[in-house]
Predict the 3D structure of the following.
Amino acid sequence: MQKKQVFNTKTLVYLAMLGAIQIVLTRFLSIQTPIIRIGFGFIPYMLTAMLFGPIVGGIYGVVIDFVGVMINPAGGAYFPGFSLSAFLGAFVYGIFLYKKPKNLWRMAASVIIVTLFVDMFLNTLWLTMITGKAAYAILAPRAIKNAIMAVIKIVTMLAVWKSVGNYIEQTFIQKGETKVTHA
């Protein structure tokens, strides 16, 4: 009896490349405070969910969150709540954008859902657990940052998809060279 291959080599190479880019963008090229991080680490994260689907995107989010903390724990020690947030965020992006039109409406809807439920609710909950600060004390600056970043994410992802994502999907994934099969 033959086992089904979940990822082939090319898929793993794409995921590793996107993961390396995400770690650099998130851990080394972002502005970090104890309650706010501003950066562009969301780009590879969203591309992964868009190209490979919600499950692969979610697993990618968890793995990259863990690896990122092990490489550069500047934001603090590993906390599994943020891994759950990474999984859920990528899962939502994958649900809205995997094998579906990558248009303004879908990108905006996915970003707004992730921003409200993952970034504002769950991540604020995790931060209050870690820092001991009341949610109301950190909610205002996080709300402002997330509102601004939501617009930046939508605009950036439209531009990135049109310049890079669409090419990758059409050139490699749709031709069957990088197939993700589900076990």
Summary: The helical segments are 9-28, 42-52, 54-71, 80-97, 104-131, 135-173. The longest helix spans residues 135-173. Residues 177-183 have pLDDT under 50 and may be disordered.
